[in-house]
């Protein structure tokens, strides 16, 4: 597997593949790869002739006081894991390659409305940074498809919406969350947890399971959200939000909506953890 850090080198390589008629898959990441990322690469390999993974800790999506400086950077190990998985090319640009004129004043891509809720409410500007860098990566690689994890449910919806709104001609593939044996969703930020916090962390998944089951059984979503937030606090996790939403647009559900998703973000020590579960509410329960 080749590793490239510069845009002209990337464009040359991709031009050769495109001239050969090869189908190109993209897996954007911020590195510190775990089994969840490798599952994205494998899914891309099943659907494309050549797979490009990117590792770039994108400063635009971190707010002041967030973990930009401490975010784990493990490029050599990431490259090793990607090569073992069969990835063809790693693109790991420098910040100056991606933002040669600096971060401030850079053109932004933003999906209005959806960017400001849930994670966007407590991380202003976060999703603008995500959609901006993903749009840049789509333009640089011009992939036939790109693969993202459903753990970042809101991010995935925003990227789908951006690609549709801007007529980007690629398939966006979403893959189920990969979990540790105790249910904790895999995340690079799990590494921030102390041993005690790590033991508490699966309460996030368990609480979402209970919330999804309650809503599927016909519980009032608002009351069920309150119960879930209380259960998280009892387990030692500080909820940022716990919410029942529609899968299609993350709007609060109307009584007739059946395809729902429960989402939560919690603070646990230094870590901010997110997770979600889709559920189907029977039409009868939906009223
Ligand atoms: O999900 C992530 O790791 C990042 O938000 C992404 C999509 C690579 C953009 O920086």
Strand content: 15-25%
Adjacency order of strands in the biggest sheet: 1-4-3-2-5-6
CATH fold descriptor of the largest domain = Rossmann fold
Biggest beta sheet attributes = 6 strands, parallel
Structural features, described:
It is a single chain. This protein has about 290 residues and is α/β, with parallel strands linked by helices. It folds into two domains: about 1-175, HUPs (Rossmann fold), CATH 3.40.50.620; about 190-275, Pantoate-beta-alanine ligase, C-terminal domain (Pantoate--beta-alanine Ligase, Chain: A,domain 2, 2-Layer Sandwich), CATH 3.30.1300. It contains eleven helices and nine strands. The strands form two sheets. The protein has a six-stranded parallel β-sheet, sandwiched between helices. The chain has a three-stranded antiparallel β-sheet with strand order 7-8-9, with helices on one face. The protein starts with a strand and ends with a helix. Pantoate (PAF) binds near residues 30 and 133.
Which descriptors would you attach to this protein?
Rossmann fold, alpha/beta, binds pantoate, single chain, Pantoate--beta-alanine Ligase, Chain: A,domain 2, 2 domains, 9 strands, 11 helices, 287 residues, three-stranded antiparallel sheet, six-stranded parallel sheet, globular
């Amino acid at each position: 597997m080749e590793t490239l850090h510069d845009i002209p080198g990337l464009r040359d390589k991709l031009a050769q593949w495109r001239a050969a008629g090869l189908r190109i898959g993209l897996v954007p990441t911020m590195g510190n790869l775990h089994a969840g990322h490798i599952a994205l690469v494998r899914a891309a390999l099943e659907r494309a002739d050549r797979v490009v993974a990117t590792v770039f800790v994108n400063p635009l999506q971190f707010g002041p006081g967030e973990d930009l400086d401490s975010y784990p950077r493990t490029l050599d190990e990431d490259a090793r894991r990607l090569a073992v998985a069969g990835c063809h090319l790693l693109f790991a640009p420098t910040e100056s390659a991606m933002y040669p004129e600096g971060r401030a004043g850079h053109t932004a891509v933003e999906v209005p409305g959806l960017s400001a809720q849930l994670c966007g409410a407590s991380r202003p500007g976060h999703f603008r940074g995500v959609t901006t860098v993903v749009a840049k990566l789509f333009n640089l690689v011009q992939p036939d498809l790109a693969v993202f994890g459903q753990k970042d449910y809101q991010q995935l919806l925003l990227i789908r919406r951006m690609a549709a709104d801007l007529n980007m001609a690629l398939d966006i593939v979403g893959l189920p969350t990969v979990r540790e044996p105790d249910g904790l969703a895999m995340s690079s930020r799990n590494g921030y947890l102390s041993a005690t916090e790590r033991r508490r962390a699966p309460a996030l998944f368990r609480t979402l399971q209970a919330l999804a089951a309650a809503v599927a059984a016909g519980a009032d979503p608002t009351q069920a959200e309150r119960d879930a937030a209380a259960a998280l606090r009892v387990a030692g996790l500080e909820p940022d939000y716990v919410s029942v939403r529609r899968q299609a647009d993350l709007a609060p559900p109307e009584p007739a909506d059946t395809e729902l998703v429960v989402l939560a973000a919690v603070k646990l020590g230094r870590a901010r953890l997110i997770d979600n579960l889709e559920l189907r509410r029977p039409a009868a329960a939906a009223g």
